[in-house]
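Components:
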Amino acid sequence: MGFMGAISKDGLNIANKSREIVKNKIKDVLGGKINDFNEEEMGIIERVVHATADPEYAKLLVFKNNPIVEGIKAIKEKKPIIVDVNMIKAGIRYDNVKCFIDHPDVFEIAKKEGITRAVASMRLAKDLIDDGIVVIGNAPTALFEVIRLIKEEDIYPRLVIGVPVGFVQATESKEELRKLNISNISTVGPKGGTPVAVSIINGIIAYAKKGKA
Amino acid sequence: MGFMGAISKDGLNIANKSREIVKNKIKDVLGGKINDFNEEEMGIIERVVHATADPEYAKLLVFKNNPIVEGIKAIKEKKPIIVDVNMIKAGIRYDNVKCFIDHPDVFEIAKKEGITRAVASMRLAKDLIDDGIVVIGNAPTALFEVIRLIKEEDIYPRLVIGVPVGFVQATESKEELRKLNISNISTVGPKGGTPVAVSIINGIIAYAKKGKA
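Structure:
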């Protein structure tokens, strides 16, 4: 399969043409700052702009503490990926992806403790998050809970991709994530979402399969 | 469950605060044009801006041929929803959603005929698309195939939500969709994607459950 899962000639032509346009849009947005990113980071930025048709993401993505190399290592070790919503699970090309948002215990915990289902789902996944990969593309509260687990309960994920979307708490949750000493990829401001999350983690999985890092 | 599936007090507070901000952002973007939309359309616009944190969508969404009323009717009749990618299927709160992109026949047809998997998946779904609802959030070629089925093969979907994303063919495919005499919802330009598609169709499903129209 070619870029973005294309198998037909039409599919490949579209993917190649799109890639060309995406590269140029990123150049326009980043200007001289394009040299701030290494080749692997640029590959991830391209995927996100491709998935959203929104070149602004080139300015919004932040890579902290060597996240791509750490992510590739964790994928090669077949570590689990814990996600906040099923849409992300459906988009990731990897066998070991876990989402607890619809787990019966999550409904119970959320109601009883007055927390969001997203928070409850991360709390339930605690043992998998330790030494695993976390991908959050929807709920800021889920990201805050992961940050709390790291700070208060000595949970140490190998990589956190934190790109929750929205005007309430999303910006703040990602700022807190970037202060941590763990490997993370995030966006600045309210933008983010499931296609952003999925394109980042699928990019890292693709690198791992190609034997990068 | 409250707005956006919130069940906890925290979840409801976030959802309500977010809704407030979203409404204001939409007002800023639309100005006087806010009166161009009816209450149900505004509800859909709010969901899309909520899902993307991108208020520009208020200017990009187009409703043609009474799509919300037609969509609600089709949902109440339990018509199937045919989608282009599994991420959309995972996000829709409805029992009868079909996605053929990973169907073995689709790989065969795509390779043999030199078409994209997305096109092959729509061709395979032809009989379900007739009198059903189509939701396309990723592949412009899938939307072009649906348009071809409508024009050349007398297939008549009740509603087409066409919001494929990308810099190649997405804009053009949506322009062609808007020329048709069927009920449709689309975006102007390259932007769109799975969260846009999912929030539109889930909004219509929510209306149908509340007994609107």
